């Protein structure tokens, strides 16, 4: 019997790479995305493409209304998406997002009898996000094993974050070797309805720099 894993899939290149890694390790993957009130739906369309192309057994979108609490440039239209640069925690940080996402992934994993959850967080390029640090992943894994029926009954739950210490170039090189089609992905914080990128936000900058450093052609369509 195949081992099962829930894989968080956002539509971006990191999660596409993580899905490919999980599949290559023999997991039967259940891809999970969130419609959480983000600025655009292009990433959800991309998440579905990535899940289907990546061989996920099932793809599910969970609806959450994080826009109702705001506090981020990604969920509050009154906060502008910044150009590249700045210090401290970026305004694109969505309060508690990864904690909420992992909690729901944990619930689905219990239902599926899956002991593994994969998430594409990265502490190198996104060091300003508190919920992308190794300490957070370790703490959540401890919580997962304390807070679940599966954990209490001895089914140790594992939170995998295989990209957490890789540069964007290393992530792209890893995915390219696994056959990931990055043309299916959307990374831009303010992509248009066709999924075209702005080319100016932090995410676009990191993506462009990553492809250049990896020596891989950038398949991203830009609207400006």
Task: Indicate the topology.
Blueprint: E1 3-8, H1 13-24, E2 27-35, H2 42-53, E3 58-63, H3 97-112, E4 116-118, H4 134-147, H5 149-152, E5 158-160, H6 168-177, H7 202-214
Parallel strand pairs: 1-2, 1-4, 2-3, 4-5
Helix pairs in contact: 1-6, 6-7
Please characterize this protein's 3D structure.
The protein is an alpha/beta fold and about 220 residues long. It has a single domain, classed as HUPs (Rossmann fold). Helices cover about 35% and strands about 10% of the residues. It has seven helices and five strands, in the order E-H-E-H-E-H-E-H-H-E-H-H. It has a five-stranded parallel beta sheet, with helices on both faces. Helix 1 (about 15-25) packs across helix 6.
Looking at this protein, list some descriptive labels.
single chain, alpha/beta, 5-stranded parallel beta sheet, Rossmann-like_a/b/a_fold, ATP-binding, Rossmann fold, QueC, 224 residues, globular
């Amino acid at each position: 019997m195949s081992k099962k894993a829930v894989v968080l899939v956002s539509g971006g290149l990191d999660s596409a790479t993580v899905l490919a890694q999980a599949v290559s390790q023999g997991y039967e993957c259940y891809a999970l995305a969130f419609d959480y009130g983000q600025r655009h739906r292009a990433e959800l369309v991309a998440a579905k493409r990535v899940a289907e192309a990546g061989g996920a057994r099932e793809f599910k979108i969970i609806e959450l209304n994080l826009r109702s609490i705001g506090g981020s440039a990604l969920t509050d239209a009154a906060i502008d998406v910044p150009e590249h640069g700045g210090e401290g925690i970026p305004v694109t940080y969505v309060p508690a997002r990864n904690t909420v996402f992992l909690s729901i992934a944990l619930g689905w994993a219990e239902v599926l009898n899956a002991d593994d959850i994969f998430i594409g967080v990265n502490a190198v390029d996104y060091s300003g996000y508190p919920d992308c640090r190794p300490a957070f992943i370790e703490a959540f894994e401890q919580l997962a094993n304390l807070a679940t029926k599966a954990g209490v009954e001895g089914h140790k739950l594992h939170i995998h974050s295989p990209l957490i210490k890789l540069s964007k170039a290393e992530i792209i090189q890893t995915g390219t070797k696994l056959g990931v089609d990055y043309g299916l992905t959307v990374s831009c914080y303010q992509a248009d309805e066709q999924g075209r990128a702005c080319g100016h936000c932090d995410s676009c900058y990191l993506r462009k720099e990553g492809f250049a450093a990896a020596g891989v052609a950038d398949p991203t369509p830009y609207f400006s």
